[in-house]
């Protein structure tokens, strides 16, 4: 008898990834609806692939972060606009304003440290595995995201979904 499970004809991994990215869109949409006012102590670290299709960032940021970067939505952001499949936000990097267009499909992690909540997404199809992400250090960045997006066994609310590919 063969113990190998059959390959699914339903793309469950893609469906789950899309649904979890919709959570990010819904949260950002609620912030947009309040004109960019974050409730309580909530703030977000958003990590995304800078070379993903549809990502538009200034060339100097692309040069500094050719693979992936993390932005912080906390005190200094403006012009947040959320659509069904992406968001646009303006941030300051070294006191230089920059507009970023980021499709939800490019996001690899979303963290709200105020409530110890995080979502981590597998890399998009065709992306190579990536090393540790360097934070973008938009003004100001107060905490290190690397310790927040790794899966933990301490009961925190980090969700990591990783559907392994069969060889």
From TrEMBL:
<dbReference type="Pfam" id="PF04386">
    <property type="entry name" value="SspB"/>
</dbReference>
<dbReference type="InterPro" id="IPR007481">
    <property type="entry name" value="SspB"/>
</dbReference>
<dbReference type="GO" id="GO:0008233">
    <property type="term" value="F:peptidase activity"/>
</dbReference>
<feature type="region of interest" description="Disordered">
    <location>
        <begin position="144"/>
        <end position="167"/>
    </location>
</feature>
<keyword id="KW-0645">Protease</keyword>
<dbReference type="GO" id="GO:0006508">
    <property type="term" value="P:proteolysis"/>
</dbReference>
<keyword id="KW-0378">Hydrolase</keyword>
<feature type="compositionally biased region" description="Polar residues">
    <location>
        <begin position="149"/>
        <end position="159"/>
    </location>
</feature>
<protein>
    <submittedName>
        <fullName>ClpXP protease specificity-enhancing factor SspB</fullName>
    </submittedName>
</protein>
<dbReference type="InterPro" id="IPR036760">
    <property type="entry name" value="SspB-like_sf"/>
</dbReference>
């Amino acid at each position: 008898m063969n113990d190998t499970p059959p390959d699914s004809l339903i793309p469950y991994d893609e469906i789950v990834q899309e649904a979890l990215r919709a959570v990010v869109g819904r949260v950002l949409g609620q912030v947009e609806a309040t004109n960019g006012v974050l409730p309580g102590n909530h703030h977000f670290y958003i990590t995304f692939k800078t070379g993903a299709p549809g990502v538009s960032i200034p060339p100097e940021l692309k040069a500094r972060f050719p693979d992936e970067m993390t932005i912080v939505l906390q005190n200094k952001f403006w012009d947040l606009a959320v659509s069904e499949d992406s968001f646009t936000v303006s941030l300051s990097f070294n006191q230089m304003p920059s507009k970023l267009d980021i499709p939800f499909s490019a996001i690899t992690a979303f963290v709200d440290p105020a409530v110890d909540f995080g979502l981590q997404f597998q890399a998009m199809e065709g992306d190579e595995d990536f090393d540790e992400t360097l934070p973008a250090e938009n003004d100001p960045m107060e905490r290190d995201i690397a310790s927040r997006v790794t899966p933990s066994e301490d009961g925190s609310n980090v969700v990591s979904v990783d559907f392994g590919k069969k060889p």
